[in-house]
């Protein structure tokens, strides 16, 4: 038995922050941000709008697209780095907001920008093994809450948003393989190192990043993970119809595609419209390409992501 995606959904908060807006906040320019990252604008959650609220909108759209009811969901795996609270998990909060009572398991995955890839690979194991019937897999982030808005090296890069898919049991090929990796020795290179102790924040709660190190590492491991997926399925790069990369930086996306020999016409890019939305970026890009009709039945699709940890991975599927 396989697991297959039967519905996608995404949600971006209404408020838009453009590069020109950022020019008034830090010493940066629209030109620098566009050239170095490809980002034009990002979306910012309203005060009080939490990761679960964004997830709820994306999930409703995915459930509608799948043609099922929320009550049919018997597994929720939610990837986020910006949970509503320390506990309970944002997945449990989402389950409640969806009105699912007495449901199956619901839990969060923390793999930063690879979170959705990790969550999807995990859900596939539950569904394809027959343990669950309909999984809701979500990536949702309110990164605006963990950005230092005076640090131009990080605040221009990230945005808020959510994406979701419904994964169900199928006799037809869906997810063909997943390839997850981590290298914890890089844990300090990209981090929000603060923690809470005795009711007080210890250390910085804001994102810190060695941008150049992340950039080089990302291109190297994303190429490796996608190649691993292609080889594992006895395919060639030319067999890939769509590459859906983590939307962090257009230069990382182009460099990875070039190393893989995949033309940019086959790469879905949305980073210009919402910046790096971490765990939400892959399902957001997937939903946009599904809804505008680019991704068609039986096509071969590869999803990939890399993030803090470091963590990285790829999922290869037949649509
Ligand atoms: O999801 C995974 C998480 N993160 C990423 O994927 C990010 C990976 N890294 C990157 O995308 C890139 O490294 C950045 C976009 C963060 C930076 O681009 P870069 O080409 O590596 O620039 P740089 O860090 O080498 O900085 C070049 C210059 C520096 O000035 P000097 O030292 O050459 O005078 C920076 O201070 O650009 C300066 N700079 C800026 N200038 C204007 C850094 N940030 C900005 C800014 N506006 N926002």
Walkthrough of the structure:
The protein is an alpha+beta fold and 319 residues long. It folds into two domains: 171 residues, Peroxisomal Thiolase, Chain A, domain 1 (3-Layer(aba) Sandwich); 143 residues, Thiolase/Chalcone synthase (Peroxisomal Thiolase, Chain A, domain 1). Helix content is 32%, strand content 27%. The strands form five sheets. The chain has a five-stranded mixed β-sheet with strand order 1-7-6-4-5, with helices on both faces. Helix 4 links the parallel strand 4 and strand 5. Helix 3 crosses helix 4 and helix 7 packs parallel to helix 8. It is globular and about 55 Å long. The chain starts with a strand and ends with a strand. The model has no long low-confidence stretch (mean pLDDT 97). Bound molecules: oxa(dethia)-CoA. The site of oxa(dethia)-CoA has 20 residues, from helix 2, helix 6 and helix 7.
Secondary-structure blueprint:
Elements: E1 2-11, E2 15-18, H1 19-23, H2 30-37, E3 41-44, H3 51-66, E4 75-79, H4 90-97, E5 106-109, H5 115-128, E6 134-142, H6 152-155, E7 160-170, E8 175-182, E9 190-191, E10 195-197, E11 200-202, E12 208-209, H7 211-232, E13 242-245, H8 250-260, H9 271-274, H10 281-291, E14 300-307, E15 311-318
Helix pairs in contact: 3-4, 7-8
